[in-house]
Amino acid sequence: MLIHLSIKNFALIEQLDMHFSNKMSIITGETGAGKSILLGALGLVLGKRADLTSLKDKEQKCVIEAQFQIDNYNLKPFFLDNDLDYEPITIIRREILPSGKSRAFVNDSPVNLNELQELGEFLIDIHSQHQTRELSEEEYQIRILDAIAGNSETLAAYQNRLSEYKQIKSQLKKLISDKEALSKEQDYNTFLLEELLAANLKTGEQSELEAVFERLNNVEFIKEALDKSLALANEEQIGIIQNIKEVKTALQKIAGLSPEFNELNERVSSVLIEFDDIVNELFNQSEKLVNDPEQLELVNQKLQTIYSLQKKHQVGSVEELLEIQHDLDNKVVLADDLETTIQKLETEVQEITLDLEQMANTISVSRTKAVPILTDKITSVLSQLGMPNARFQFDIRPKETFNAFGKDEIQLLFSANKGTDFGLLKKIASGGELSRIMLAVKAILAEYSKLPTIIFDEIDTGVSGEIAHKMGDIMKGMSSEMQVFAITHLPQIAAKGQQHYKVFKSIQGESTISELKLLSAEERIVEIAEMLSGKDITDSALNHAKALLN
């Protein structure tokens, strides 16, 4: 339940600190006094988006802090799942900075708005006139039935299975699409793969083949160059080797005269050894040269095959062709593997579908059993609220497809008077009737759910007199199970609360501010009397106010 609320620099509120009881609290005030501001502040604590218009002083940050006692509401799993520190007295703080940025904290741990909204659903139900319209929506009607039927665990298991079902169906759809796309390309991919495999490509072979081709294609030119080099090296009288030998002989004669001459002699000796080795290699290369037209043609054909494949696949190396070959091989294999995977997923879908059918049927049966319980309870409460002839029917029909709540399609039918036909609730119920029906629903749900706090925001719209008394009694009865706040304009309801707060505006300097005050017993009599007779309070109104409070 909400035990403390602190608001700073929000809308017309400069500073507000209030403590609340665990019973029924009344909030009254003139239209425009700031009741909606309080709800807006709570909305921010519960995760609604904010903007700079929330700041009273645009230069200062807005801080809203709410303390909730949550030790009786089994929220430890939520805190564990979201990696938050659990505290029996949990503090939620929302800050809006002058820059427009917003921050949120749960027990001083930063949280995002999604986490805050999810936590808020466990803490407060703010019931406004807008939510009364939700009563006409199918999803809300289903939630009511499920609460009475006790479907929460089965529904949670169903929704987990449904999520798995949707995930596999999505995966299956993609694989079937991929298979269809691959099937269209399968023949062409197979052709390309076989063409590459036939080429028998090897890493690095292109440069080797190109070198062999150049050698075989220029045999005569190479032979001529090698033979000329050998002739120049080996000529008996003027050959290079003979000349180097003569240089070596001349230097040997003076090598002993100085270290410099000796070094020159050694270097010439090294040159002679190296050049002699070069000549031997020239001879070997010359001997190995063979004019082989057949080999030249084979090498040329292999190169032309490589060049043709590179042009077709728009690449420049054998390595890139091998990568393409690998990819094509994967695609051809993938098409076969996809069929196996698709069959496996289709089997899983069939199994999950059977599970979903069984769970949806279980949920539907329990809903059907809950219908008479719910209708009896609603009609009983509405009888107290001046609708003794109200009747309800739940039209539950199975659908072909699964949704988040099973396979049921639900229509809530309503008849307000004897002798009138049933019709859709949203079409035939008036605003006042919807308010009373929603109050009846909330009162019944209070018996089945463990919501800590409910706020009724002018749910009494369209009612008065004795019906207002009954509405107040029902709200007060609910406060024995949960914390109840009622924002009201009706003195009959205002008199039912254990605490009574008044929202009012005041002028301070050049500024208008909204304030919230806990009324004393005497102040409460005056406030209710004013609600009865207006600003000019009469003795009769004061006596009536005292009677209502007693």
UniProtKB/TrEMBL annotation:
Q: Do the record's keywords include tRNA-binding?
A: no
The family assignment reads:
Belongs to the RecN family.
Q: Which GO terms describe its cellular component?
A: bacterial nucleoid
Its function? May be involved in recombinational repair of damaged DNA.
| Protein name, entry field | DNA repair protein RecN
> Which InterPro entries does the record match to this protein?
DNA_recomb/repair_RecN, P-loop_NTPase, RecF/RecN/SMC_N
SUPFAM superfamilies documented for this protein: P-loop containing nucleoside triphosphate hydrolases
Entry annotated with the keyword Zinc? no
Q: Name one Pfam family in it.
A: SMC_N
One Gene Ontology term of the biological-process aspect is: SOS response
- Keywords linked to the UniProt accession: ATP-binding, Coiled coil, DNA damage, DNA repair, Nucleotide-binding
Q: Which GO terms describe its molecular function?
A: ATP binding
Name all RecF/RecN/SMC N-terminal domain ranges: 2-511
Q: Which residues form a coiled coil?
A: 155-185, 328-362
Give the CDD domains listed for this entry. Answer: ABC_RecN
Q: Which NCBIfam families match?
A: recN
